[in-house]
Write a structure and sequence with these properties.
It is a single chain. The relative contact order is 0.15. The protein has helices at about 20-30, 40-50, 105-120, 135-140, and strands at about 5-10, 55-65, 65-80, 85-95, 125. The protein has one domain: Aminopeptidase (3-Layer(aba) Sandwich), CATH 3.40.630.30. The protein is built from 4 helices and 5 strands. It is α+β, with helices and mostly antiparallel strands. A hairpin with a 2-residue loop joins β2 and β3 (about 65-80).
C-alpha cells in the first residue's frame, strides 16, 4: 500500500462502509486469536450500526485516486451509576500493521474522546490484553490511567 498519511481522515462509519469495516474487524479478531467468521462479523456489525447500539469511526488515507481504510475505533454507550452520567466503553481499536506508528491510533483515540466530550460523558473506559504493551503505551501517552481501585470480573455463560 502506497498510502499518503498526510491525508489521514477520521469519519463516522455506517453500514454503507461495511466493505471497509468487515475486513478490518476480522483482522482485529484474528489479532486476538479468534477463528475467522466473515459472515458473523458482517451480521454483528450490521446489527450494531442499524440499531445505533454502537459508534464506529474509520481512519482513511489517500492511496492514489481512492481512499483506503487503515483502522477503526468502536465504542458502546453506557452509564455510570456512581457519577450519574453517561460513559463510553472503547471496546475495539485496530490499526493495520502497515499504518502503525503513523499517528492513526492516536487520531482514532482523539476522535473517541471528542465523542465522549460531545455527549456529556464523564469518561471513556477501555481494557486491553495484559501482553499488549504497544496499546498500553499509546493509552498511557494519551492520559489514560490504569485502574487500581476496581478489579474486573467476568462470568462466561
Amino acid at each position: 500500500m502506497d498510502a499518503d498519511f498526510s491525508t489521514l481522515r477520521i469519519t463516522r462509519a455506517g453500514a454503507e462502509q461495511m466493505d471497509w469495516i468487515a475486513p478490518l474487524f476480522e483482522a482485529y479478531r484474528e489479532f486476538y486469536r479468534r477463528p475467522p467468521d466473515p459472515r458473523g462479523t458482517r451480521a454483528f456489525l450490521a446489527e450494531r450500526l442499524k440499531r445505533e447500539e454502537s459508534v464506529m469511526f474509520l481512519a482513511l488515507v489517500q492511496t492514489g485516486n481512492s481512499s483506503t481504510a487503515v483502522g477503526f475505533v468502536h465504542l458502546y454507550p453506557t452509564f455510570s451509576s456512581l457519577s450519574l452520567k453517561p460513559q463510553w466503553i472503547l471496546s475495539d481499536l485496530f490499526v493495520t500493521p502497515e499504518a502503525r506508528s503513523r499517528g492513526v491510533g492516536a487520531a482514532l483515540m482523539d476522535r473517541a474522546k471528542e465523542l465522549a466530550e460531545g455527549s456529556g460523558a464523564d469518561g471513556l473506559m477501555l481494557e486491553t490484553a495484559t501482553d499488549n504493551l504497544t496499546a498500553q503505551k499509546l493509552y498511557e501517552s494519551l492520559g489514560y490511567k490504569r485502574d487500581i481501585e476496581f478489579y474486573r470480573y467476568f462470568l462466561a455463560v
